[in-house]
Amino acid sequence: MVDTTKKLTPGDIRAVFLRSNLFQGSWNFERMQALGFCFSMVPVIRRLYPENSEERKQAIKRHLEFFNTQPFVAAPVLGVTMAMEEQRANGAPIDDGAINGLKVGLMGPLAGVGDPIFWGTARPVFAALGAGIAMSGSLLGPILFFVLFNLVRLLVRYYGVAYGYRKGADIVSDMGGGLLQKMTEGASILGLFVMGALVNKWTHVNIPLVVSRVTGQDGKTAVTTVQSILDQLMPGLVPLLLTFGCMWLLRRKVNALWLIVGFFVIGIIGYWIGLLGL
């Protein structure tokens, strides 16, 4: 007896993964990522539904509905949708509402995880590491940023599609129990730890005001400055206080552009009057 069960192949998963890298290529204000989602699903639709059939046409239309989430974490949604389309093609009672309902139900929570992890943590951390190396004059800095960020992006996209397909609709229960919140908190803690370690490396403040001059018996003069006293108390104290001050101002909705302009003005005037040094 011939087995007529329709089954997606590893090649289909790879095809969806490759197409998902163009997810934002046709973003628009009407349906946002809908065209990118449909484009990514084309290999699946071709595999499951006969050419020129009504089922194929309906499947294309089904995935042109509004969709919008963080583009990297759209991968598990694609995987889940693949599994549901496969079940539907094999006769399971899954209608358009069930498929689109699951997509809409996942895109919001996943966007809430993807934005802080990738835009708020991974990208700034990798950029900080790359910039720190680039400041020493090494070309490795921007290359490191490009490689690390895209490595994470590609891994999340590929394994996200595979994981979503493997779990199917059961992925909803996996994302319960505070798992998404724990992932977000963990990524935020890691990002803050790395950025905190880079504060002293990046931020340089020198206050060369002379507090005292003491001439020793050997004729050498020992000069004590405000900066040397602060360094004895805690190296990097001023950059740390400056960072906390910026955080406080940002939380009070002060525009970051004004902070940058303010630093320029304070730096120029401070150097001109001798309060700040190089």
TrEMBL record:
It is found in: Cell membrane. Its main location: membrane. GO terms for biological process: phosphoenolpyruvate-dependent sugar phosphotransferase system. It comes from the Bacteria. GO terms for cellular component: plasma membrane. Keywords: Cell membrane, Membrane, Phosphotransferase system, Sugar transport, Transmembrane, Transmembrane helix, Transport. It holds the Pfam family EIID-AGA. InterPro entries: GatZ_KbaZ_carbometab, PTS_IID_man. It is a multi-pass membrane protein. This is PTS mannose transporter subunit IID. It comes from Dickeya fangzhongdai.
